[in-house]
């Protein structure tokens, strides 16, 4: 799969090398050509000099083919703008932006852009939000058989009831994070763009649940 990363600082270069080592195609965008030195001589992906929210720059990075886009430059506003262009102009479904100011996270969530605050950033969190079947386990029972995991739900589910997800997968939705706040969904709770869904499921079933969540819902 093809990934586009805006920003080649410590975060961006780490993500790019991690994705490349997993066998993915990666394009890295940065306004400073010298920043690409962080990638090392073994990096075989693309490097594009320019602004990550510029449409021509994004096209040069093959954004039209991208499975996911990560905006991890040093500026919050640039990251959010680039993430919105990637999603709204080029239709990239899997988008994540790094922010320095966690207090602005609620605003970004309203724009439908998943964010990771620098104060709690890890490369694993970024990778889990970018890669397919990217459930993020939050808790495991002592036996290791049951987990509470954040599982990405395809945007095609927007407007459908959470209870439909439970019925289709046989899982239980423990809670939903909406606009930065947790909520326990009811039978009529409708999935909204930007919601983070956390399920309780057997670890052995998690792969099947992830695949179902990544597919469009069945027709009514």
Major sheet details: 6 strands, parallel
Helix content bin: 25-40%
Number of helices: 7
Report the principal-axis shape. Answer: globular
- Major beta sheet, strand line-up: 3-2-1-4-5-6
Quick check: average pLDDT?
A: 83
* Low-confidence residue ranges: none
Radius of gyration equals 18 Å
Give a brief outline of the structure.
This protein has 220 residues and is α/β, with parallel strands linked by helices. It contains 7 helices and 11 strands.
Structural descriptors:
5-stranded antiparallel beta sheet; 6-stranded parallel beta sheet; 11 strands; alpha/beta; single chain; 220 residues; 7 helices
Structure description:
The chain is an alpha/beta fold and 220 residues long. The model has no long low-confidence stretch (mean pLDDT 83). The strands form two sheets. It has a six-stranded parallel sheet, with helices on both faces. It is built from seven helices and eleven strands. 28% of the residues lie in helices and 25% in strands. It has helices spanning 10-21, 55-60, 76-89, 105-110, 123-130, 162-169, 206-213; strands at residues 2-6, 25-30, 46-49, 68-71, 94-99, 115-117, 136-140, 146-150, 172-178, 181-183, 196-202. The two termini are 31 Å apart. The longest helix is centred in the middle third of the chain and has 14 residues, at 76-89.
């Amino acid at each position: 799969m093809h990934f586009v990363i805006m920003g080649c600082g410590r975060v961006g270069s780490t993500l790019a090398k991690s994705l490349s080592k997993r066998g993915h195609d990666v394009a890295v965008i940065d306004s400073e050509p010298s920043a690409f030195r962080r990638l090392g001589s073994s990096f075989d992906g693309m490097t594009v000099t320019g602004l990550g929210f510029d449409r021509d720059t994004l096209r040069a990075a093959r954004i039209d083919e991208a499975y996911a886009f990560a905006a991890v430059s040093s500026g919050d506003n640039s990251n959010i703008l680039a993430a919105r262009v990637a999603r709204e102009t080029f239709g990239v479904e899997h988008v994540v932006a790094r922010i320095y100011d966690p207090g602005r996270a609620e605003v970004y969530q309203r724009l439908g852009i998943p964010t990771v605050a620098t104060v709690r950033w890890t490369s694993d969190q970024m990778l889990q939000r970018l890669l397919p079947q990217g459930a993020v386990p939050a808790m495991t029972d002592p036996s290791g058989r049951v987990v509470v995991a954040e599982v990405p739900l395809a945007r095609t589910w927007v407007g459908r009831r959470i209870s439909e997800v439970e019925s289709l997968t046989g899982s239980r939705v423990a809670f939903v994070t909406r606009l930065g706040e947790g909520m326990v969904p009811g039978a009529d709770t409708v999935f909204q763009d930007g919601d983070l869904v956390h399920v309780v499921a057997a670890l052995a079933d998690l792969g099947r649940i992830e695949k179902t969540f990544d597919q469009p819902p069945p027709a009514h």
